[in-house]
Design a protein that fits this description.
This protein is an alpha+beta fold. The chain has two domains: 3-102, LON domain-like (Archaeosine Trna-guanine Transglycosylase, Chain: A, domain 4); 112-211, no CATH class. The chain is built from six helices and seven strands. Strands 1-3-5-6-7 form a five-stranded mixed barrel. α2 (112-127) runs parallel beside α5 (167-198).
Amino acid sequence: MPRDLPLFPLELVLVPGEPLPLHIFEPRYQELLDRCVDNDEPFVLVLQDEEGMREIGCTAEITDVLERFPDGRANIITMGREVVRLERVHDEHSYRSAIVTPVEDEPAEAPEAVQAAALAAFAGLADELPEQTPDLPEPGPGLSYQLIARIDLGHDAKQDLLEDRDEERRLGAVTGLLDEIRRGLVLTRETQERARKNGRVRTPEELAAELGLD
């Protein structure tokens, strides 16, 4: 069902299930915060950069107002909830709002084998980041977003995934990104260790072939 929700354009991308802390300081967004808190409604975080504002964003539920300062500034915690399309943007307030409609995945859940491959790729990456120990999400609908929320991707790649309505295709893309990140970490670590031991450094292509990372 279409809803009229306030917009928070930023040069970042939020996905369902992703926590996001924000510092609210501009007066127009202080007004937005008051509206959302008073009416118990989310706002829509949407990517805006030099290419303009996108048509697909994600609703952000305010889960906690950590601190509110006398001048109206605030530190809040939000959680990504639902992917929406901006149907019509309007400027009735100091901040922008939009009529938005939810967008659905088709299919909503990827086959078990595709999910297992993605989870294995995530576990492999987690092994390379022992100091961070990211938790492994449960399989099910929207697994791709649960994985995206746990890794650091550029906003362009993240927006492409947010806009893709095929969970199986999206999960396959995430698996490829996870493998690529892990490959880079392994090559960097091996290069540093070998340089420290004997001063000899092989090319990334040679090292990848030796380690079976092609």
